[in-house]
Amino acid sequence: MSATAMSALVGLLFMAMLLGLIPATIAQSKGRSFIVFWLYGTLFFIVALTHALLMRTTKKKAEADAVADGGKVCPNCAEVIRAAASVCRFCGREVQKGQP
User: Residues 6 or more apart from 56 whose CB is under 8 A from it?
Assistant: First the structure.
């Protein structure tokens, strides 16, 4: 293999690795593994990008975001509710104001 062919191959591999960062970053923001989607995006960029854009946020990530935005977890049913709620909208039980 000639030096120019090797240089072109290394450049193409480097570009694929950089492009793989796009679906990986999107997937990480939705609660998925950055490394897995980086590899996926490096190998199959168009498919990985479409997959990352169309997939939903994981429930765990959505709950963590809701708690970070001022929500709290109901001590009875473990669902995330608003911090100002006095009654849980999921189980209907009263929630004390002082509970986290």
Answer: 30
- Whether 74 and 90 have beta carbons less than 8 Å apart is answered as yes
- How is the chain split into domains, by residue range? 1-56, 58-100
- Say how far apart CA 17 and CA 12 lie, in whole Å: 9
Q: What is the block-wise mean pLDDT of the chain (100 residues), using blocks of 10 residues?
A: 91 95 96 96 97 94 87 88 88 77
Whether the model clears a pTM of 0.85, i.e. scores above it, the answer is no
Of 42, 39, 40, 46, the closest CA to residue 13 belongs to: 42
Q: How far apart are CA 86 and CA 95, in angstroms?
A: 5
Cβ(62)–Cβ(30) below 8 Å: no
Distance in angstroms (rounded) separating the CA atoms of residues 44 and 93: 48
